[in-house]
Amino acid sequence: MVRPPCTIHLVRSFLTGVVSGTFYGTGLGSCGITNSDTDFIVAISHIIYDAFPGYTSGNPNNNPACGKKIRATYQGKSVEVTAVDRCVGCAEFDLDFSPSAFDQLADPSIGRLHGVQWQWIS
């Protein structure tokens, strides 16, 4: 499937939803950046990553999703995170947060959050 060129308008409307969220140990992500657990980052599902507007496969470091901002909200708490990785184990709309970002939404002992709302903000 061929997608149109990426614009902010397309990004904002591209695959936003209510999902579950987890957290993971960070490191070198698909965007080619090494992050730490204290960074406010997120891995998006491989389905969204691979179909992101403007991505033509090849080098994952060049995916237009890399560096895009997402606002996630759970039970009245919000966090802004940067997309830096591709989550192979995630369902289509799920997000995988860094531990610090997850901690802004809920206690890590919960493990998985159901009903996280999110949207692209840049």
TrEMBL record:
CDD domains: DPBB_RlpA_EXP_N-like. Pfam families: DPBB_1 (PF03330). This is Barwin-like endoglucanase. Residues 65-112 form the RlpA-like protein double-psi beta-barrel domain. It comes from the Eukaryota. Keywords: Signal. Residues 1-20 form the signal peptide. The keyword Signal applies. The keyword Kinase does not apply.
